[in-house]
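Lab notes, practical 5.
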Amino acid sequence: MKVLIINGSPRVNGNTTIAVNELVKTFNQEGVESEVVQIGNKAIRGCIGCYSCAENKKCVFDDEVNQLAPKFEAADGLVVATPVYYASPNGTVLSFLDRLFMSCKFDKTMKVGAGIAVARRGGCSASFDALNKYFTICGMPIASSQYWNSVHGSGKGEAEQDGEGLQTMRTLGKNMAFLMKSIALGKEKYGLPEKEPWQPTNFIR
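Output from the prediction step:
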């Protein structure tokens, strides 16, 4: 089992890292390999809707999105952790995910997804909801925890004091490991669910 973890914070070793590290420790205990990539301090531009990825199978902008796409394809799960900006994931995270999910044409069915939001106070649940939409549009089950996946802290290192938040990360790690292992067994015995041909329906004709 392998998980790709995206750290969307621009701050190295900040509160988002504390949340991610708690998850990594749990994955290690569960025998799950993980790789953390920090993108929040990168210049990642937004999608321009050119649809060249439909033909080229990669994004027209050759940056971290194209670099991480093969790792996403090889992984059994994807975790996206973001700081909260204006009750939403930060712009870099949203730009990265828009382009990653649009340009990656491989089947993502039954890869497990999990979003994590880190904030001083408010906006975690709204950010958590925004992240989950990327997973649910493409057949990725969402790993749950004992609470919404959030950790609180303002100044650097304050997330260490959020005992419930860190416990939520540990529970998430255990549940995600269990879910990925269970899906692997299910795929081996039953295969992936059969898919119907896509029936696109536009509301303005």
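Observations recorded by the TA: The beta strands are 2-7, 33-38, 77-85, 88-89, 112-119, 150-152. The first strand starts at residue 2 and ends at 7.
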